[in-house]
Amino acid sequence: MVIxxxxxxxxxxxxxxxxxSSLVSAENYNQEPxxxxxxxxxxxxxxxxxxxxxxxxxxxxxxxxxxKEDIGQAAGLLRLHFHDCFxxxxxxxxxxxxxxxxxxxxxxxxxNLTLRxxxxxxxxxxxxxxxxxxxxxxSCSDIVALAARDSVALSGGPDYAVPLGRKDGLTFAxxxxxxxxxxxxxxxASTILEALATKGFDPTxxVALSGGxxxxxxxxxxxxxxxxxxxxxxxxxxxxxxLKEICPKLDSNGTTVLDIRSPNKFDNKYYVDLMNRQxxxxxxxxxxxxxxxxxxxxxxxxxxxxxxxxxVIAMTKMGQLSVLTGKxxxxxxxxxxxxxxxxxxxxxxxxxxxxxxxxx
Length: 360
Ligand code: HEM
Ligand SMILES: *[C@@H]1O[C@H](CO)[C@@H](O)[C@H](O)[C@H]1NC(C)=O
Ligand SMILES: *[C@@H]1O[C@H](CO)[C@@H](O)[C@H](O)[C@H]1NC(C)=O
Ligand SMILES: *[C@@H]1O[C@H](CO)[C@@H](O)[C@H](O)[C@H]1NC(C)=O
Ligand SMILES: *[C@@H]1O[C@H](CO)[C@@H](O)[C@H](O)[C@H]1NC(C)=O
Ligand SMILES: CC(=O)N[C@H]1CO[C@H](CO)[C@@H](O)[C@@H]1O
Hints:
Blueprint (H helix, E strand, L loop, with lengths): L3 H15 L36 H15 L2 H15 L30 H18 L5 H15 L20 H7 L7 H9 L5 H8 L6 E3 L17 H10 L8 E3 L11 H7 L6 H4 L5 H12 L1 H15 L24 H16 L2
Antiparallel strand pairs: 1-2
The structure holds protoporphyrin IX containing FE and 2-acetamido-2-deoxy-beta-D-glucopyranose (5 copies).
Protoporphyrin IX containing FE binds next to helix 3, helix 8 and strand 1.
Subcellular location: Secreted
Main location: secreted
Cofactor: Ca(2+); heme b
């Protein structure tokens, strides 16, 4: 894990030694990593170096404050990035508000029911802070990617560079498209592997990405069919008994943690849970039953740094799924609305026109 203050000092040293140009005031988290995941066309490790060098600092500083109040928000933000990327690519379309005139939106599709409202607010707040400093140059989809990275890092997980330069999408994903792209928690491992292979993920990626469940919570309805009417024989008996107390019925509305050993820490205990038959979803637990993934689970359970290494690779892949770059897409002035649906934005354009006209 990187201690930002130590890093700042390091960068101050380096910049004063090299005396590259003028002031290097912002921290730069985005050192090109040693591993090689091919970069999608239009993304780069230093995309905002000139246009908004403070962007990463603003996100990290603000999220430190947010997580100090409620570390649970880290899980909400990590999941938001996953849902954004899996449904029509990392284009911020998951953020679009249903009140806009689109044909439907990703938030309204059933698997999104449990995305935390607060995660959307945090992203919009970050967007406002960044745009205040730099102007409208940083996309909402990049902010979500950075927020997910910081959620992992500030929960004790690996810190890693994020390729930047995504643009925000103009189209909504229909509920059907959303449902088709987000795997269900009651899927078995072979179904999950097959679904994720179509997006370019290998079994190691799948097991590593599922490790995102080392933080956060779930509603009863996501796993109660493992308890009722008959108990999943794979599930540890004591674990099942405890879950039945939290969720006495198939449709109970309680919640429980995803990783019983260390619910708020981004560590490898999720894999230890699986080896003890204490995985919450079928999609988790079956990774330890299925022959193609069992050994990968064990390898992560015994070697946390191996998990971190593979997680970062898989996240870097995920963060580049069908990205819009260059002239495609836009940079939203409000993460919840396309610019063409954003009355405040349109009004500001009119003001600008009036001003530029009055200059002549
Ligand atoms: C592999 C297929 C996956 C399935 C089937 C799945 C399913 C789920 C479900 C059902 C929930 C609980 C929703 C609820 O009832 O509240 C959940 C929560 C969560 N998922 Fe996944 N997920 C998957 C992959 C991922 C990935 C790739 C990540 C990130 C790397 C991720 C991160 C999270 C987090 C952090 C939470 C907790 C959210 C919170 O506390 O608000 N999941 N997931
Ligand atoms: C969505 O899926 C449902 C059932 O799976 C189907 O009846 C409906 O026609 C689909 N809608 C669209 C717009 O594809
Ligand atoms: C996994 O689930 C699918 C769909 O329900 C089913 O067809 C398949 O037989 C299952 N595979 C295993 C190995 O259980
Ligand atoms: C749902 O939760 C609320 C408390 O938040 C409780 O009062 C209510 O009885 C619960 N409903 C069901 C169906 O469990
Ligand atoms: C952003 O857009 C949403 C959806 O249209 C709207 O409800 C909200 O008020 C907007 N926020 C701002 C600050 O304009
Ligand atoms: C927060 C949110 O957008 N919830 C929606 C999730 O999906 C259901 C079913 O489509 C809607 O009724 C919710 O409003």
